Amino acid sequence: MKPQLVLGIETSCDETGIGLVETGRGLLAHRVFSQIDMHAAYGGVVPELASRDHVRRIVPLIRETMLAAGRELSELDAIGYTTGPGLAGALLVGASVAESLALALDVPAIPIHHLEGHLLSPMLSSEPPTFPFVALLVSGGHTQLMRVGGVGDYALLGESVDDAAGEAFDKTAKLLGLPYPGGPILSKLAGQGEAGKFKLPRPMKNSGDLMFSFSGLKTAVLTATQKADFTPERIPDLAAEFQEAVVDVLCAKARAALAQTGLSQLVVAGGVGANSRLRERLRREIGKRGGKVFFPELEYCSDNGAMIAFACAMRIEAGKAAAATGGAFAVRPR
Ligand code: KG4
Ligand code: ZN
């Protein structure tokens, strides 16, 4: 197959991401515009504002990305776009731009699952993992362990029964009065505190399966802040204990997933994969047992278009890229 030039479009939430990948060569360029500052005033993502901002940013970002790579739109062989999960209105912006551009250029528009983008993003690094591996997907919407046998070969091993790990970080940050986006800010505060000064539970750590539960942890944090001896100066210690509790559970389950599948490579993906304590503990604990952990580069941890272009290119190479049919496009918010 001649090298395929693939554009990737990501608009599932509050980042407009565009990536350009060429099969056989890898990522040529990518651009992300984050709406974080805009939503910060509201304490969270406002879906209607997110959609409108994607409309504003998407075409200039596509132009910038093509320019950075020195390539023309007319050279594109395919366009991949995030079809879900995410905010319906935001997804529709990316889907409609992808589908119309594809129609104009007479190339296929290929719907890509957002989580597949995250899942394969560690393969964008200079030392990529090889199939098969176990993936720990930890984002704002998902906490999942998967066995990845190859492109499109994903078996769910376990997931959260309630809040996702990133969601737990965000909700806990909010109840501690921290500004949006809570997760990274909470984790930064945790670095200034000491775990163990508070005692929080490790939900489902010893459940004997690969399921997770994080909503009780947030409630336990709330309870701790309502005690008479709680003062705002103790927030860093509470944040550190919260982070340690989440990391404890994620590490234990990741190790159990490797043991259960008999695999030695663990790939971590999604926004929480940027957490430095999680990175440090997984590296140490899995390394000690002869395994290896792969993280996406920090710029590919949060939402971006590079991972969507890359997943689309991998699907094309594997002969598993199904174009949307009939000119009608569907987004799948959930
Ligand atoms: O993958 P992502 O960018 O978007 C989703 O698809 O959800 O993940 C965002 C999530 C948010 O919940 C955010 O708080 C969390 O990742 N996050 C972190 C850190 N950086 C981002 N959580 C803990 N520690 C971090 N350093
Ligand atoms: Zn994501």
Automatic annotation (TrEMBL):
It is found in: Cytoplasm. Its EC number is 2.3.1.234. Keywords: Acyltransferase, Cytoplasm, Iron, Metal-binding, Transferase, tRNA processing. The keyword Metal-binding applies. It catalyses: L-threonylcarbamoyladenylate + adenosine(37) in tRNA = N(6)-L-threonylcarbamoyladenosine(37) in tRNA + AMP + H(+). Fe cation binds at residues 114, 118, 303. Binds 1 Fe(2+) ion per subunit. GO terms for molecular function: tRNA N(6)-L-threonylcarbamoyladenine synthase activity. Substrate binds at residues 137-141, 170, 183, 275. The keyword Heme does not apply. Its main location: cytoplasm. It holds the Pfam family TsaD. InterPro entries: ATPase_NBD (IPR043129), Gcp-like_dom (IPR000905), KAE1/TsaD (IPR017861), TsaD (IPR022450). Its cofactor is Fe(2+). It comes from the Bacteria. It is an enzyme of class 2 (transferase). Required for the formation of a threonylcarbamoyl group on adenosine at position 37 (t(6)A37) in tRNAs that read codons beginning with adenine. Is involved in the transfer of the threonylcarbamoyl moiety of threonylcarbamoyl-AMP (TC-AMP) to the N6 group of A37, together with TsaE and TsaB. TsaD likely plays a direct catalytic role in this reaction. Belongs to the KAE1 / TsaD family. This is tRNA N6-adenosine threonylcarbamoyltransferase.
